[in-house]
Amino acid sequence: MKLIRRLYDWVLSLAYTPHGSAALFVIAFIESSFFPIPPDVLLLALAISLPAKAFRFALLASLGSVLGGIFGYGIGYFFMDAVGLRIVELYGLKGNFEYIQNLYKEYDAVAVVIAGFTPIPYKVFTIAAGAFKIDFGVFVVASAISRSLRFFILAGLIYYYGKPIKAFIDKYFSLLTIVFGLLLFLGFLALKLLH
Q1: Contact 139/127 with Cβ under 8 angstroms?
Q2: What does the alpha-carbon distance between residue 121 and residue 70 come to, in Å, rounded to a whole number?
Q3: CA neighbor of 130 nearest in space, from 179, 88, 68, 78
Q4: Is 93 a residue whose pLDDT tops 60?
Q5: What is the separation of C-alpha 102 from the centre of its chain, rounded to a whole number of angstroms?
Q6: To bridge 29 with a disulfide, which of 64, 92, 97, 167 should be the other Cys (CB 3.0-4.6 Å)?
Q7: Whole-angstrom Cα distance, residue 130 to residue 75?
Q8: Could you tell me if 144 and 62 are in contact, meaning their C-beta atoms sit under 8 angstroms apart?
Q9: Does the pLDDT of residue 30 top 80, yes or no?
Q10: Residue 75 above 90 pLDDT?
Q11: What backbone torsions phi and psi does residue 84 show, to the nearest 5 degrees?
Q12: What confidence tens digit (pLDDT) does each residue in 118-173 have?
């Protein structure tokens, strides 16, 4: 929990540098393939500091995330044994990898949309999509829809409600981390029940 909190604080601090927008793009990119902190944290801070640019920041996060998803797809497609399995193991999902494969076989784009919009680790699904040779065009379109929807909803909330959302997250970070973990578990359970 302490490591995640330090990473969260570091990502948040990037909002107060002249390179906040570039950092948002990079964080969104790497989160889609291996980094544990979602870009939502930085998007939140940037949009609160400049509400008029909230939707521009959402667009940057969406582009970075989709391109990072393509990178994750490439890891799975070309480097699954060398790199992909290590990332999947890092998130403790090696045992679920075959299950994810079955989700892709049965639900294709829907699995990508669910992973891209919810707390389910999107990076594992991007790598799995490449490893299982999911149709690349379907993957990109589903990623673009789900990630954009997620970031533009957050930008809209910030644009209209602003600083109270950031204060809430800062005050209840530990509780939100537990809730996030619970949502992650429920997301996998829901996917399992769909199967």
Answers
A1: no
A2: 15
A3: 78
A4: yes
A5: 21
A6: 64
A7: 7
A8: yes
A9: yes
A10: yes
A11: -55, -45
A12: 666 788 889 989 998 989 999 999 899 989 988 998 898 888 877 776 677 667 75
- Give the closest residue to 11 by CA, choosing from 2, 23, 22: 23
Tokens linked to 153: 């909803």
Report the amino acid identity of residue 147.
Answer: R
3-state helix, strand, coil in the chain (%, to 5): 85, 0, 15
CA distances from 174 to 27, 136, 154 (A): 21, 37, 20
Nearest to 190 by CA among 132, 117, 128, 131: 117
Mean of pLDDT values over 7-27: 83
Are 96 and 188 in contact, with CB atoms under 8 Å apart?
yes
Q: pTM for this structure? A: 0.78
Token pair listed for 149: 């929807």
Instruction: State the Cα–Cα distance between residues 55 and 154, nearest whole angstrom.
Output: 9
